[in-house]
Amino acid sequence: MVRPEEHRFGDADFRLEAPLSDGTVFCGHESENNVDADCRLDHLSGYRELVHYAVPYGEGPGLSATRECVAVLDGDAERSVAAELDELLIEKIMQLDWIDDYVLRDNAAQPMEKWWWHLGAIRRREYPAELLPEHLQEIYAEYGSETR
Question: Chain centroid to CA 91: how far?
């Protein structure tokens, strides 16, 4: 059974469906094709709120699940905003002294190509750089191989 989680950050309210035991997140929709434009923007807005206002404080409830919902965005402008937020997220994950354990808990049920489910491995510099999108590989490389 999927149980919804309600989150509020800043002016954004958004709803995530909790991951199933296999790590699947439905975001309240049966398939990617059933996600309307407003809902996609809600997920992007929620991701923006998390990256800008929760992650800098070492928090991020629903961060990976929200990023999973953002992964289906298909508009160039939406993808561009998501890419910028991804860059900021990786920088924060690598730079911050303290991040709550739940944010860094890797989800082994998710494929490694879905890097947002493996933030702990990224922070520890154990994530295979070649699996990151090119724009994130550069940021990841800046932090070298020093483990945290």
Answer: 13
